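Protocol step 4 of 5: obtain the predicted structure for the target chain.
Materials: sequence only (see below). No template structures provided, no constraints applied. The aim of this step is simply to have a reference model before the mutagenesis design in step 5. Sequence pasted as it appears in the construct record:
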Amino acid sequence: MRFLLATWEGGGVVPPEMGVVRRLRTRGHQVRVLADPAVEAAARAAGAEFSPWIRAPFKRSLAPEEDFLRDWEYKNLLKLFAHALEVFLCGPADRFAADTIEVLDLVLREANDLKDYINSGKQADAQAYDSSRKKALKEIKTLLSIKD
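Step 4 output (structure tokens):
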């Protein structure tokens, strides 16, 4: 079975979620984590494939200056809640959805290319599968401005 775990680096949510990833992998499932680039190392260490948020708000590192929520700056809990709704939960919901749909499409394309290869055993289908994976990685790197 395949699982997509969509998450974010939020000060304590990553370790228990990676525990779920490890348990799913131990049971033989495929897992892809969709999260902040700052989560990539933990996701891969847990045995998951990884896709980063691209359009949605994300953090490349754990550095405080990368934190778009900046919750420590709020003394009033209601103002913090309103801020979180705007910059993280509701405001960018369409961007989180777009990233999620794109990753689901990627997984579907990979699955179809792999199925074609398994069914045919043809080298051309193996190359199509490999090509789709490389193309997806290149698209992600381009969108994140990562150079090889």
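Step 4 remarks: Residues 93-120 form the longest helix (28 residues). The chain has one domain: 2-143.
Proceed to step 5.
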